[in-house]
Fold this protein.
Amino acid sequence: MIETVSLASTDEELVARSRGGDLESFNQLVLRWERPIYALAFRVIGREEDARDVCQETFLRAFRALSGFKGQAKFSSWLYRITLNLCRDWIRRQRRQPIAQAPEGVDLLDLASEVTPTESIEQLVSRREVGRAVQRAMAVLPEEQRTAIILKEYHGLTFQEIADMLGCPLSTVKTRLYQGLTVLRKQLASAGMRKYDV
Amino acid sequence: MCDNEQLVAYLYDDISDADRAQVDTHLRTCATCRDELRALRALRTGLAEWAPPQPDFGVRVVRDQQPSWRAWWTPAFGLAAAAVLVLAVASALAHVDIRYGQDGVSVRTGWSATAPQSPAVTSASVVSPASDAVSQLDARYAALDRRLRQIEASAQPSPVSSVRQVSATSARLSDTEVLRRVKDLLAQSESRQQQELALRIAQVLHDVDAQRVADLARIQQGLGRIDAMTTADAVAHRDLANYIMTSSRQPK
C-alpha cells in the first residue's frame, strides 16, 4: 500500500517517515526547504552555482545522517547548521572573503516582466540597485556578522536559535548583528544610498 | 542606558516584555537612540530588497540502482569465495597433493612427502637446496612420464571412446552455436541502444524546440510591454511639447 505524504505533515513527521525508509517523505522535506537553504547559501557565499552545490550537498548529507538526527533541535535548524558548515568549508577552500557576484547589466525584459501596476520602471530599477548594493555591502562584512544578519534578517531565527546554531553566547549574536548593521549603513551610504543612513 | 544589544533586540522585536518597556522608557528621553533606531529601521527596508535568484532546483533523492555485478554479489557468496581463496592458499602453503588412482582418492601434504627416497636424496645434507629442488622436479617429471605411457598403452579403440569423440565434437559444435547466439544477442542489444539513443535525441530536440518557443513568447511579451511603455512616454512627451508650443505662441 502506498502511503501518501500530506503537504500538511510536520517536519518531524516527515523526518520520522524518512528514517523509516520513505524516500517520498524526505523529498517532501527537500521540496519544503530547498529554497530557504539555497537562499542561505547564496547570501553567505554570494555565488549562484556554488550556492546550488551547497544546497544539494546539504540535503545529501542530511539524508545520510538522518539516522543520527535525534530531534533535539528543529529539523530546519539542523539543516541550517549543515549548510553553514558547508559554507564555511567553501570559504576556507576559496581562502578569501566571499565575493558578491558582479552586478549584471540591467535586463529590460526581466524588468518589464516584473513591473507591477503600482510600480514604475524607475522604481524597479532603483529597487534592484538597492538589492545589488546590499549584496556588495554584505560581502564586505566579516563572516560572523554576515551570518548573524542573514539568519536574523532573512530567516527570522530568534537570537537564541542563532546562538545555539553558532555556538556562541546570546549577547555575542546581538553584538555581531549590531556591528554588522552599522557597517552596512556606512557601506550603503558610501554607495550613494543616503536614505539608509538617516 | 544606550545599550546597543537591547536596541537591536528591540529592533527585531526579539525581546522580553520587561526589557521592551525599559527600552521604550529610554527612547522617550534619548534622542540618539531614537535616531539610531530610525536609521536601523530604514536600513532594514533596504536589506529587504536583496532577494536571491530563484533557480530551478529539482533536487530529489532516489533509490540507488545497484550495478549488475552487485546483484549477485551477496554476503554469502563473498564468504564462499573467501573460503575457497583461503583453502587455495592453504593448499599451496601446505603443498597438498591430491591424487586419484585405482585405490581411490589420496591426499598428501608436506613438501617432502613425495620426495623419492634415493641415494642422491639420502645424501641431501651435502647437496645445495637448489640442486635438491631440481632433483625433486626431475623425479616428478619421470613419474608423470611413466603415468602417461601407461595411459597410452592401455588406450584401446572401443565404443566408449567413440562416444566420447562424438561427445567432444558435439561440444565443439555447441560452442560454435553459443558464439553465434552471443553475437546475435550483441547485435540485438546494439540495435536497441541505437533506437534508444535516437529516441533520446528526438526528445532533447523536442525539449529544446519547446524551450525556444517559450523563450520567444517571453521575449515577445516583454517587447510588447516595453513598446506600450514607450508609446505612453511618447504620448506624454508629445502632449508636453504641444503644451509648450501652445504656451509659447500665446501673446504675453
The domain at 7-99 of chain A is CATH 1.10.1740.10 (Rna Polymerase Sigma Factor; Chain: A). Chain A touches chain B through 53 residues (CB under 8 Å).
